[in-house]
TrEMBL record:
Keywords: Glycosyltransferase, Golgi apparatus, Membrane, Signal-anchor, Transferase, Transmembrane, Transmembrane helix. Belongs to the glycosyltransferase 31 family. It comes from Biomphalaria glabrata (Bloodfluke planorb). Its EC number is 2.4.1.-. This is Hexosyltransferase. It is found in: Golgi apparatus membrane. It comes from the Eukaryota. It holds the Pfam family Galactosyl_T. GO terms for cellular component: Golgi membrane. GO terms for biological process: protein O-linked glycosylation. The keyword Membrane applies. Gene3D superfamilies: 3.90.550.50. PANTHER family: BETA-1,3-N-ACETYLGLUCOSAMINYLTRANSFERASE (PTHR11214), HEXOSYLTRANSFERASE-RELATED (PTHR11214:SF379). The keyword Isomerase does not apply.
């Protein structure tokens, strides 16, 4: 031991070459760098792990519930509007409820993927939409709130005048409301030149008619509806909302706008109307609403909204139009658009007590 201590003292007193000093400093630097890289990689791995939702057990802490719920919300795409929620002071029961809601939101993401897949399919239905009269620039200015679209028979002159004098007409006549109203007509059945001249006089007087080149019969109501969606999509997409009303009903415009604005806070694509469920298709050939087994073989109609009054964002009109081009149609337009097309393109069908209509008492 004494010998070892002696040589150790001699070795420590010996001068150290500069190259060895540099080597020691390099080794210390590399060791430090290794530690820093290890810490950084650990941080990245833990951050990445937090970004992946995990299945929690019964013993999960409140913090893990919060992280899971936050990540679930972050996974939702921009086409769903979610109100900000503060989770820090929530009870575990409340957070469980939020996680259940977020599960529905994640399911909505999958729905959107299905929508994209559906809209990528080739066009199935070729609708020939040719305009006899098209006020294509009518929405270019002062159009930012509501577009009222009204399907009307060619000879329903009195109905159209009544709509113009109703609450709808008064509302759109106020410039500050930034709204428009248009009637949609086809060609008069039988080709009456007298009716056509009266329509052209009406066009010159009011400038609120869109006329499409197809025979205007009830059997062609789907053609008219698709033409309306086409017109909104191509010529009036800058409006906030589209409201479809029949020309023989009265509605409360204030209630309609209130309901639309409220639903827009939660949904991006939705359709408001009077919802019906459990209806059987009418198989009586003498009925106005006859629907054949060939056209629709199912025992019940889908959940749908009655076409007398419908409301939706302008962007939703484009989705419904694109669906109408790709889905096997049935001639009942409200059932086809609201019951079959709406769910196919991720449009939520909603009822609201403010969104109702009544037929006029003649």
């Amino acid at each position: 031991m004494k010998v070892f201590s002696f040589y150790k003292r001699i070795f420590n007193r010996m001068p150290v070459p500069t190259s060895i000093k540099r080597m020691k400093r390099l080794m210390i630097f590399l060791a430090g760098l290794t530690v820093v890289m290890w810490l950084a990689s650990s941080l990245v791995i833990s951050t990445f792990s937090l970004a992946i939702p995990i299945r929690t057990s019964e013993n999960s802490t409140k913090e893990s519930y919060i992280e899971l719920s936050k990540n679930s919300v972050n996974m939702v795409k921009n086409n769903v509007r979610i109100q900000n929620r503060s989770l820090e002071n929530k009870t575990l029961t409340e957070i469980d409820r939020l996680i259940a809601e977020n599960k529905k939101l994640k399911e909505h993401m999958y729905t959107q993927e299905e929508v994209i897949s559906f809209l990528s399919q080739p066009i199935l239905n070729e609708y020939s939409i040719k305009y006899m009269f098209n006020p294509s620039t009518a929405c270019a200015e002062n159009m930012n709130q509501v577009l009222f679209i009204v399907p009307s028979k060619t000879n329903n002159f009195d109905n159209r005048n009544k709509v113009r004098q109703s609450e709808r007409g008064k509302f759109v006549n106020l410039t500050e409301n930034g709204s428009k109203l248009f009637f949609f007509l086809g060609r008069h059945q039988g080709g009456s030149q007298k009716i056509q001249r009266l329509i052209e006089d009406e066009i010159v007087t009011y400038r609120d008619i869109v006329q499409i080149d197809f025979t205007d019969t009830y059997a062609n109501i789907l053609q008219k509806t698709v033409s309306m969606l086409h017109w909104v999509t191509h010529f009036c997409s800058n409006t906030s909302f589209v409201v479809r009303t029949d020309d023989d009903v009265k509605v409360n415009v204030t209630n309609i706008i209130s309901a639309l604005e409220e639903k827009r806070r939660t949904f991006r694509h939705f359709l408001l109307g009077e919802i019906q469920e459990g209806w059987e298709p009418i198989r009586n050939r003498h009925s106005k609403y006859f629907l054949s087994m060939t056209e629709y073989p199912h025992p019940l109609l889908p959940r749908f909204a009655i076409g007398g009054l419908l409301g939706f964002p302008a962007a939703t009109a484009a989705l419904l139009y694109q669906c109408a081009l790709r889905l096997k149609p049935i001639w009942l337009d409200d059932v086809f658009i609201t019951g079959l097309c709406a769910p196919k393109v991720g449009v939520t069908l909603i009822g609201d007590p403010r969104f109702t209509f009544k037929h006029w008492d003649w």
